Amino acid sequence: MIKPADRTLEVKYAIRDILKYANEAKEAGLKLLYLNIGDPMIFDYQTPRHMIEACYKAMLDNHTGYANSSGVQEARDAVDREVRRKGIKNYHDLFITSGVSECIELCLSALADPGDEILLPSPGYPLYTAVLAKLGAKHVPYYLDEENDWEPDIDDIRRKITPKTRALCLINPNNPTGSRYSKECLEEIVKLSLEHDLLIFADEIYDKLVLDGPESISIASLSDEAPIISMNGLSKTYLVPGFRIAWATVTGNKSILTDYIEAVNKFLRARLCAVTPLQYAVQPALEGPQDHLEDMKAKLRRRRDITYERLNAMPHVSCVRPTAAFYAFPRLHIDEPDMGFVCNMIRETGVVVVPGDGFGQKEGTRHLRIVFLPQEEVLEEAFSRMEEYITKHLGKAVAT
Asked: What is the C-alpha to C-alpha distance for residues 334 and 319, in angstroms, rounded to an integer?
């Protein structure tokens, strides 16, 4: 028997792990309604044609070999201009990666040794915990405050900083809650970074999918001194998740970042490069027509409203209104674990959602992550099935 490495024991990814229960329901003859994976391309969204044409032209022009490990210059220049448009200054490096996922892995690997502590949002994206498990580093959850529109709890962050804390990760707008953070909150996080010499990882992949209110603020625009890795990409906003093209910029006090930047670049050189011809989509995406964005956000607002209203009308369910991205994170006012609730609901109804336990949550609470990308009629049918299931098994009384 070949024994797998112990580090794999803590690697979990609830978004896809739940599919085994969906397959059981499908084999039983149920029509499945998928509200679990944030891939716009399996629904009624279309990649902007000028981006596809740019990649096709790149291949015809024979741009099919290795690129510079930090990225094609045309793509890097476009990201440089995008960064400046956001008001970000004092930045020292940028690099193109195979999705934000690769960026997370490279940047954490260049920082964290076994036993180091990294502060992660809870709820938050599960890839961070999986990478830290592989590295032997410790993830320390800090809580987002459901009573305050899912903003980070600054006092909770402060309590959890120790001499072993190396960095704080920020997902803004947030997956899985669909929240985005106020300027005041981000300024407090900058203060903590400067006070405790913490690197900030700012995952901002959903920053152009704001559905209500002012634009999302990039935390790097608020400080020239705090060391910040800002991560973004094409996947969600520009409707090419399969391209796996993203980027990161390094900003802040250069005197404390030089060695770390070189460590990241060692990993970049070792893995060669992101897919060369697909990097030629970056410039036309960022600087070409943006019409699809308004169309996409209009769809998402309608689907968000259906999701928010239907969930809050259900017994035993409450939901904070999402203001960005395409996720909702409703709370279940029930006694059983959310994993058991989800598995049983999938088997009986075919509605595929993800348990909140897969993203982290305060002890004693239960949640679901719901993706509201699907067409309105799909959402309506899914929520009708869900409400019928809850009423059947839990009754009509609404928990407080």
From this structure: 14
Average pLDDT over every residue of 248-257: 95
User: Among 300, 354, 358, which residue's Cα sits nearest to residue 326?
Assistant: 300
**Residue range 6-46+291-394, CATH number:** 3.90.1150.10
The full 3-state SS of 199-253, as one line of letters, equals EEEEECCCCCCECCCCCCCCHHHHCCCCCEEEEEECCCCCCCHHHCCEEEEEECC
Burial label, 377 (beta-carbon count in 10 A; 0-12, 13-18, 19+): exposed
Reported as a pLDDT band with limits 50, 70 and 90, residue 193 is very high
- Look up the CATH number of domain 66-287: 3.40.640.10
What residue segments make up the domains of the chain, in order of their start?
A: 6-46+291-394, 66-287
Cβ–Cβ contacts within 10 Å for residue 364, how many? 5
End-to-end Cα spacing for the chain: 51
Give the contacts of 352 (CB within 8 A, at least 6 positions apart).
18, 19, 21, 22, 25, 32, 33, 34, 35, 36, 346
pLDDT score for 306 = 98
pTM over 0.90, yes/no: yes
Q: Are strands 165-171 and 117-122 parallel, antiparallel or unpaired?
A: parallel
